[in-house]
Design brief:
mainly beta, YD repeat-containing protein
Length: about 280
């Protein structure tokens, strides 16, 4: 299957003050438009992200994501609200806490009206301010009600070399996955390898100078989905090979992404840009 999608049309780009507006179109569905507007502050940090899906002239989905910062410019809160089909959606939020400039705790609220329930992710850092431990757990009614899942990170000269993280298997028992990271002489990531029998067991990255040109994922089984499992083509039988091939324009921006499933084009995306 080959799908050609025009992601961006330059005639619909509008820049004004600190905001950028653009419309996404799919040639296969001329009745549907995706309107986007991003507003940034004077430091070029996100303030508001507005998204709307328009069908036959009616806005059927709209979302607003707002960003809040401390006096020193650290992101301290991100909230998201919206509506679908005329019905108001709940407001979700992530609240960040810091020790100096290190983010040590993130609280993710599925619905801010229930302030006692959230996903907590806590971080610990080394003397170089690199995260060496992550601890994730759910809080309900103000108390942790699930065992914490830990991740640990080992570095070599500032580069992540080994990651170990916990999750639960199908019998609700903790299991650990170890991922090894490999780099070239330019310190570019060229391979990630998972020790456990997870879906995405091996990933390879290829470059053209400083530009990523190909990302190949070799899969194994459906026994477990590790956190690298971002894309899973439903028609595929495991094991399969998934490839992402990137083409850049003269300015270094990605203009084409080809996704190949077992050496056959599965999805092809093109991006049209105009410069001024």
């Amino acid at each position: 299957m080959k799908i050609s999608v025009i992601l961006l049309q330059p005639i619909n780009i509008l820049k004004k003050n600190n905001a950028v507006e653009w419309i996404l179109k799919e040639p296969r569905d001329k009745n549907r438009l995706y309107f986007n507007k991003d507003t940034k502050n004077k430091q070029d940090k996100d303030l508001v992200q507005y998204r709307a899906t328009i069908f036959n002239g009616d806005t059927i989905i709209r979302t607003n994501t707002n960003f809040f910062y401390s006096s020193t410019g650290l992101l301290i809160k991100k909230s998201k609200s919206g509506s679908m089909g005329g019905n108001q959606l709940g407001t979700s939020a992530i609240v960040y806490e810091y020790k100096a400039n290190d983010m040590v705790l993130a609280k993710s609220y599925y619905d801010v009206s229930n302030a006692g329930s959230y996903l907590a992710i806590a971080y610990a850092y080394d003397i170089d301010h690199l995260p060496i431990e992550k601890r994730a757990y759910f809080v309900r009614n103000g108390k942790a009600d699930t065992p914490a899942l830990y991740s640990h990170y080992l570095y070599d000269k500032g580069l992540l070399k080994i990651e170990k993280y916990e999750d639960f298997n199908d019998k609700a028992k903790k299991i650990e996955t170890k991922i090894d990271y490999f780099y070239n002489s330019k310190q570019q990531l060229i391979r990630r390898h998972s020790s456990r029998d997870t879906l995405f067991t091996d990933e390879v990255y290829e470059y053209n100078n400083d530009q990523l040109k190909k990302h190949t994922i070799h899969t194994n089984t459906k026994i477990g989905l590790n956190k690298a499992a971002v894309v899973y083509p439903s028609p595929a039988k495991v094991p399969f090979t998934l490839e992402f091939i990137y083409e850049h324009d003269a300015f270094g921006n990605v203009i084409t992404i080809k996704e190949l499933l077992n050496n056959q084009i599965y999805i092809e995306k093109t991006k049209k840009l105009t410069y001024y």
